Amino acid sequence: xxxxxxxxxxxxxxxxxxxxxxxxxxxxxxxxxxxxxxxxxxxxxxxxxxxxxxxxxxxxxxxxxxxxxxxxxxxxxxxxxxxxxxxxxxxxxxxxxxxxxxxxxxxxxxxxxxxxxxxxxxxxxxxxxxxxxxxxxxxxxxxxxxxxxxxxxxxxxxxxxxxxxxxxxxxxxxxxxxxxx
Length: 181
Prior knowledge:
CATH topology: TIM Barrel
Strand content: 5-15%
Order of helices and strands: EHHEHEHHEHHH
Structural class: alpha/beta
Number of helices: 8
Shape: elongated
Number of domains: 1
CATH class: Alpha Beta
Radius of gyration: 19 Å
Oligomer: single chain
Largest sheet: 4 strands, parallel
Number of strands: 4
CATH architecture: Alpha-Beta Barrel
Helix content: 25-40%
Protein backbone atom coordinates (compact mmCIF):
# COMPACT_ATOMS: atom_id res chain seq x y z
CA UNK A 1 0.00 0.00 0.00
CA UNK A 2 1.47 3.40 -0.92
CA UNK A 3 2.05 5.86 1.89
CA UNK A 4 1.48 9.57 1.22
CA UNK A 5 2.58 12.33 3.60
CA UNK A 6 1.21 15.86 3.37
CA UNK A 7 3.45 18.70 4.53
CA UNK A 8 3.17 22.45 4.80
CA UNK A 9 6.39 23.25 2.96
CA UNK A 10 6.54 26.73 4.45
CA UNK A 11 4.53 28.42 7.14
CA UNK A 12 5.04 31.88 5.59
CA UNK A 13 6.09 33.18 9.00
CA UNK A 14 9.57 34.48 8.12
CA UNK A 15 8.60 38.10 8.81
CA UNK A 16 6.73 37.45 12.05
CA UNK A 17 7.94 38.11 15.58
CA UNK A 18 7.41 34.42 16.35
CA UNK A 19 9.90 33.44 13.63
CA UNK A 20 12.42 36.02 14.79
CA UNK A 21 12.26 34.58 18.32
CA UNK A 22 11.92 30.85 17.63
CA UNK A 23 12.54 30.32 13.91
CA UNK A 24 10.15 29.21 11.20
CA UNK A 25 9.57 26.19 8.99
CA UNK A 26 10.43 26.84 5.36
CA UNK A 27 11.25 25.12 2.08
CA UNK A 28 14.86 24.38 3.06
CA UNK A 29 13.64 22.51 6.15
CA UNK A 30 11.09 20.65 4.02
CA UNK A 31 13.83 19.55 1.60
CA UNK A 32 15.92 18.17 4.47
CA UNK A 33 12.83 16.42 5.86
CA UNK A 34 11.87 15.02 2.45
CA UNK A 35 15.26 13.36 2.08
CA UNK A 36 14.49 11.29 5.21
CA UNK A 37 11.04 10.10 4.17
CA UNK A 38 11.85 7.24 1.75
CA UNK A 39 13.86 5.40 4.42
CA UNK A 40 10.76 5.62 6.64
CA UNK A 41 8.53 4.03 3.99
CA UNK A 42 6.93 7.19 2.59
CA UNK A 43 6.27 6.96 -1.16
CA UNK A 44 4.86 10.39 -1.98
CA UNK A 45 5.22 13.86 -0.45
CA UNK A 46 2.12 16.02 -0.95
CA UNK A 47 3.48 19.60 -0.94
CA UNK A 48 1.16 22.28 0.42
CA UNK A 49 1.87 25.44 2.43
CA UNK A 50 0.75 27.67 5.26
CA UNK A 51 -2.73 28.53 6.46
CA UNK A 52 -2.01 27.67 10.09
CA UNK A 53 -1.46 31.01 11.76
CA UNK A 54 -3.26 34.33 11.51
CA UNK A 55 0.11 36.12 11.56
CA UNK A 56 1.46 34.42 8.47
CA UNK A 57 2.24 36.59 5.48
CA UNK A 58 1.65 34.66 2.28
CA UNK A 59 3.19 36.45 -0.65
CA UNK A 60 2.02 34.37 -3.53
CA UNK A 61 1.90 34.11 -7.24
CA UNK A 62 -0.79 32.15 -8.99
CA UNK A 63 1.23 28.96 -8.73
CA UNK A 64 3.31 29.47 -5.58
CA UNK A 65 2.67 25.97 -4.18
CA UNK A 66 3.34 24.29 -7.53
CA UNK A 67 6.65 26.13 -7.84
CA UNK A 68 7.70 25.07 -4.35
CA UNK A 69 6.84 21.43 -5.15
CA UNK A 70 9.05 21.77 -8.24
CA UNK A 71 11.94 23.04 -6.19
CA UNK A 72 11.62 20.19 -3.71
CA UNK A 73 11.36 17.62 -6.52
CA UNK A 74 14.46 18.97 -8.22
CA UNK A 75 16.45 18.90 -4.96
CA UNK A 76 15.34 15.33 -4.18
CA UNK A 77 16.21 14.14 -7.70
CA UNK A 78 19.61 15.82 -7.76
CA UNK A 79 20.44 14.40 -4.31
CA UNK A 80 19.77 10.91 -5.68
CA UNK A 81 17.45 10.00 -2.80
CA UNK A 82 16.69 6.25 -2.90
CA UNK A 83 14.20 4.74 -2.94
CA UNK A 84 12.41 7.29 -5.08
CA UNK A 85 10.21 9.82 -3.32
CA UNK A 86 7.44 11.05 -5.58
CA UNK A 87 6.32 14.68 -5.24
CA UNK A 88 2.72 15.85 -5.48
CA UNK A 89 1.71 19.42 -6.37
CA UNK A 90 -1.42 21.24 -5.25
CA UNK A 91 -2.95 24.66 -5.68
CA UNK A 92 -5.36 26.08 -8.22
CA UNK A 93 -4.84 23.32 -10.77
CA UNK A 94 -8.06 23.72 -12.73
CA UNK A 95 -7.20 23.28 -16.41
CA UNK A 96 -6.27 20.16 -18.36
CA UNK A 97 -3.24 21.57 -20.12
CA UNK A 98 -1.70 22.95 -16.94
CA UNK A 99 -2.22 19.65 -15.13
CA UNK A 100 -0.49 17.85 -18.01
CA UNK A 101 2.41 20.30 -18.09
CA UNK A 102 3.02 19.97 -14.36
CA UNK A 103 3.60 16.22 -14.64
CA UNK A 104 5.07 16.05 -18.17
CA UNK A 105 6.96 19.33 -18.37
CA UNK A 106 6.50 22.38 -20.55
CA UNK A 107 8.44 25.33 -21.80
CA UNK A 108 6.65 27.36 -19.09
CA UNK A 109 5.65 30.02 -21.64
CA UNK A 110 2.03 29.11 -21.03
CA UNK A 111 1.93 30.43 -17.47
CA UNK A 112 -1.14 32.62 -17.00
CA UNK A 113 -0.67 36.39 -17.28
CA UNK A 114 -1.99 36.67 -13.73
CA UNK A 115 1.19 34.95 -12.50
CA UNK A 116 2.95 38.31 -12.54
CA UNK A 117 0.13 40.23 -10.87
CA UNK A 118 1.37 39.32 -7.40
CA UNK A 119 4.58 40.22 -5.69
CA UNK A 120 6.54 37.08 -5.02
CA UNK A 121 7.96 35.95 -1.73
CA UNK A 122 11.52 34.67 -1.48
CA UNK A 123 10.36 31.03 -1.31
CA UNK A 124 8.47 31.33 -4.60
CA UNK A 125 11.33 33.19 -6.32
CA UNK A 126 13.82 30.50 -5.31
CA UNK A 127 11.47 27.78 -6.50
CA UNK A 128 10.88 29.43 -9.88
CA UNK A 129 14.62 30.03 -10.38
CA UNK A 130 15.32 26.32 -9.93
CA UNK A 131 12.86 25.24 -12.62
CA UNK A 132 14.34 25.37 -16.09
CA UNK A 133 13.43 24.06 -19.51
CA UNK A 134 10.89 21.36 -20.08
CA UNK A 135 11.27 19.23 -16.96
CA UNK A 136 8.31 17.97 -14.99
CA UNK A 137 7.47 20.02 -11.92
CA UNK A 138 5.83 17.18 -9.98
CA UNK A 139 5.15 13.49 -10.33
CA UNK A 140 1.43 13.79 -9.61
CA UNK A 141 -1.12 16.52 -9.08
CA UNK A 142 -3.54 16.45 -6.20
CA UNK A 143 -6.86 18.17 -6.75
CA UNK A 144 -9.46 18.94 -4.08
CA UNK A 145 -11.35 22.23 -4.46
CA UNK A 146 -11.80 21.78 -8.19
CA UNK A 147 -13.54 18.43 -7.57
CA UNK A 148 -15.94 20.18 -5.18
CA UNK A 149 -16.74 22.72 -7.90
CA UNK A 150 -16.76 20.19 -10.73
CA UNK A 151 -17.12 16.52 -9.68
CA UNK A 152 -16.62 15.37 -13.28
CA UNK A 153 -13.34 17.30 -13.63
CA UNK A 154 -11.20 14.27 -14.43
CA UNK A 155 -13.56 13.30 -17.27
CA UNK A 156 -13.41 16.82 -18.73
CA UNK A 157 -9.61 16.84 -18.48
CA UNK A 158 -9.38 13.46 -20.20
CA UNK A 159 -11.64 14.70 -23.00
CA UNK A 160 -9.60 17.93 -23.43
CA UNK A 161 -6.36 15.95 -23.66
CA UNK A 162 -7.77 13.25 -25.94
CA UNK A 163 -7.39 10.48 -23.36
CA UNK A 164 -9.81 7.55 -23.58
CA UNK A 165 -11.50 6.80 -20.26
CA UNK A 166 -13.90 4.12 -19.16
CA UNK A 167 -17.04 5.96 -18.08
CA UNK A 168 -18.55 4.74 -14.81
CA UNK A 169 -21.55 2.48 -15.31
CA UNK A 170 -23.63 4.86 -13.19
CA UNK A 171 -23.14 7.58 -15.81
CA UNK A 172 -24.62 5.27 -18.41
CA UNK A 173 -27.69 4.25 -16.37
CA UNK A 174 -30.16 6.21 -18.52
CA UNK A 175 -28.67 4.70 -21.70
CA UNK A 176 -28.98 1.19 -20.26
CA UNK A 177 -32.58 1.83 -19.10
CA UNK A 178 -33.44 3.16 -22.57
CA UNK A 179 -32.12 -0.06 -24.18
CA UNK A 180 -34.20 -2.19 -21.81
CA UNK A 181 -37.41 -0.28 -22.65
